[in-house]
Design brief:
Layout (H helix, E strand, L loop, with lengths): L10 H25 L11 H28 L10 H24 L10 H11 L11 H13 L27 H18 L11 H6 L1 H7 L2 H20 L7
Helix pairs in contact: 1-2, 1-8, 1-9, 2-4, 2-6, 3-4, 4-6, 5-6
Length: 252
Amino acid sequence: MTETPVHTRYVELDAARGIAISMMVIFHLVFDLSFFSLYPVETSHGFWRLFGYTTAALFVSIAGVAVTLRAERAATPVTKSTPVIPFIRRGVFLIGVGFLVTLGTFVFLRGEGYVLFGILQLIGTSTILAPLFFRFGRKAAIPGVIIILTGWVITLPTGPIWLLWTGVHPADYISVDYTPLIPWFGVFLIGMAAGFWLYPLGRRSFRVPSWADRMLYIPSLPGKHSLIIYLVHQPILLFILTVVYGKIPGLW
């Protein structure tokens, strides 16, 4: 078996990311139809609620795998230590981009239900926290499961809006995208654990046949540009809906 170059892009990860971003576009289209009362479809429970959670979980866990790859490739060969600054820099960048989403949703939604701590802020914050868990390796899944169960079993108290990032929020808080650290950082940690297992030292621990490489090529294309697609897809969807339905109540 030929050794995989350590800085290779892995088509299966790009394809998984491409599938996740495609699912997100589909869910947001359905959500928009429901939110603006353009079509009678329910996204707060049933199939579409499960679809939305599955999409977010896939997106966040893949981000965890990607951080693991970056960590394994950045580790020095002698000490196996990983520089922390690149992860802080990347995390701050994602949080900053996330606040562009905050600004955009504030304008589009006229200050109601806009995003304060959405999936980009979550992934950015998780990326900053990730180096604290590198030493766990595959066992990062343990705190991950604990965090998820905490969010699932325990009803977090209401509190001030500045604690929003933790999962504590005002009783009347609503948002079109709210993914706090509890429980979603747990999903990120499980992704990290999977990354340590599947890509030790930044290399595949498994073989991907050539036919699978070819089959995954098309879905991998959006995965290579997932951040850009995430940022532009909602304005494009809203523009299309405006063309189809005319003026949308509660928008603009």
